[in-house]
């Protein structure tokens, strides 16, 4: 006589009971936010340096006033 399955038991091959409980983790989210923030800060730094370099070449040179008498 073949063995019969009982209705109240959980099959051994059911993978649901083998999976770990899902935990909420915000670590990857914070890590991604920090990386994006660092990239933005670096981009603004280099953009500002580029703007300063352009403005330095566009300005007229400083000519100090000497002893000039007006007649």
Keywords:
single chain; about 70 residues; mainly alpha; 1 helix; about 45% helix; rod-shaped
* Largest beta-sheet details: none
Overall, the morphology is rod-shaped
Distance between the termini: 130 Å
Oligomeric state as shown = single chain
CA gyration radius, whole angstroms: 36 Å
- Helix count? 1
* Helix-and-strand structural type: mainly alpha
**Helix/strand order:** H
In short:
The chain has 71 residues and is mostly helical.
Q: How does this model look, in words?
A:
The protein is mainly α and 71 residues long. Helix content is 45%, strand content 0%. The chain is rod-shaped, with a radius of gyration of 36 Å. The mean pLDDT is 78.
Blueprint of the fold:
Blueprint: H1 27-58
């Amino acid at each position: 006589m073949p063995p019969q399955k009982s209705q109240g038991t959980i099959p051994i091959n059911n993978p649901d009971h083998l999976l770990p409980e899902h935990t909420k983790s915000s670590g990857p989210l914070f890590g991604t936010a920090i990386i994006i923030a660092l990239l933005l800060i670096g981009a603004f730094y280099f953009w500002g340096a580029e703007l300063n370099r352009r403005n330095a070449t566009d300005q007229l040179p400083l000519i100090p006033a000497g002893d000039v008498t007006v007649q």
